[in-house]
Design a protein that fits this description.
The chain has 321 residues and is α/β, with parallel strands linked by helices. It is built from 14 helices and 11 strands. It folds into 2 domains: 223 residues, Malonyl-Coenzyme A Acyl Carrier Protein, domain 2 (3-Layer(aba) Sandwich), CATH 3.40.366; 64 residues, Alpha-Beta Plaits (2-Layer Sandwich). Helices cover 45% and strands 14% of the residues. The strands form 2 sheets. The chain has a 6-stranded mixed beta sheet, with helices on both faces. Strands 6-3-5-4-9 form a 5-stranded mixed beta sheet. It is globular. About 2% of the residues have low confidence.
Length: 321
């Protein structure tokens, strides 16, 4: 049962929006409580494992970390656990008023909004992994904290002029960014920004996600996306990676096909949701990355982690179920 499929239950103005995290939120042990408590969760885990060709139960619950951080295992694992967390909330009669996803989190956000089936989104996720590997596309990503966007853009533009391809891939907050591109280009950008930012940090990513370097992958997976028959208009508001509410199945299909090629404007997405009246948010998936980002963007709203059964059990002070 997806959140949007449970439309018979009333949603009042205090209902939360569901936010879904991206890659690097994975840690060994994610999803254990859902998997151990719910036979349907175990069934979805088994089906996902079979489709991915990975023993996700072992990888998610036992590791090692190197196996968990491999791109397909990490992405499928975060997607699965986010979906299980959303399902557990629905079973508690906690329904989303809207959804949004950070990078990889867009898959789970679309599913929760009733815009695509879990199975079709998984097929796209696997196709992106398969074609990125087949095309041998490699790159790096790195975080920049405490720098003006104009400065970061200037550094990236100068490096591109010099033949080093690097871009802002994610805008997390007004002064927090994730860079993406060729490995040497990202390293050069981080080095240039080190004395001019509060902090820079290389990320353990081997793909240049959210950059034009991924465009060949988008072309390669186009037939897979075209074959997704479950795509339809979102049944509740779903905010895409550019911050705008998605209203049509055609736009859902476009995001599935290309979102990994273009920047994730998370601050814009969050600000647009607030402007549209959303004041309560739940981070539905592993970790607390988006909960922390919410405080960086707007401290006047409430965002709470809800990626485990224990965390969901502690939400009674802000949610009437």
């Amino acid at each position: 049962m997806t959140p949007a499929a449970s439309g018979g239950l009333a949603r009042d103005r205090s209902a939360p929006a569901f936010l879904f995290p991206g890659q690097l939120s994975e840690t060994v042990g994610i999803g254990r409580d859902f998997i151990e408590a719910d036979p349907e969760a175990r069934s979805l885990l088994e089906r996902t494992s079979a489709r991915c060709g990975r023993d996700l139960r072992r990888i998610l619950l036992e590791g090692p970390e190197e196996a968990l951080h491999e791109n397909l295992a990490a992405q499928a694992g975060v997607y699965l656990v986010s979906t299980l967390a959303a399902r557990a909330l629905v079973l508690r009669r906690v329904l989303p008023k809207a959804t949004a996803g950070y990078s990889l989190g867009n898959y789970a956000a679309m599913v929760a909004a009733g815009a695509v089936s879990y199975e079709d989104a998984l097929e796209v996720l696997i196709a992106v992994w398969r074609e990125t590997e087949r095309l041998s596309i490699r790159g790096r990503m790195g975080a920049v904290v405490g720098a003006r966007r104009e400065l970061v853009e200037q550094v990236c533009a100068q490096l591109r002029t010099d033949g080093l391809l690097v871009w802002i891939g994610n805008v997390n907050a007004a002064t927090q960014f994730v860079l993406t591109g060729q490995g040497p280009a990202v390293e050069a950008a981080l080095e240039a920004l080190t004395p001019r930012a509060l902090n820079v940090l290389p990320l353990s990513m081997s793909w240049p996600i959210h950059s034009e370097l991924m465009l060949p992958v988008a072309r390669a997976i186009a037939p897979v996306v075209e074959g997704c028959r479950s795509i339809r208009d979102p049944q509740i508001p779903y905010y895409g990676p550019d911050g705008r509410a998605v209203t049509t199945g055609a736009r859902v299909r476009e995001i599935l096909a290309t979102e990994f090629c273009w920047p994730t404007l998370w601050n814009v997405t969050f600000e647009h949701m607030i402007a549209d009246g959303h004041r309560m948010f739940l981070e539905v998936g592993p970790g607390e990355m988006l909960t922390k980002m919410a405080r960086w963007i707007d401290r006047s709203v409430t965002c709470r982690p809800a990626g485990t059964l224990a965390a969901q059990g502690g939400l009674t002070d802000i949610i009437q179920t």
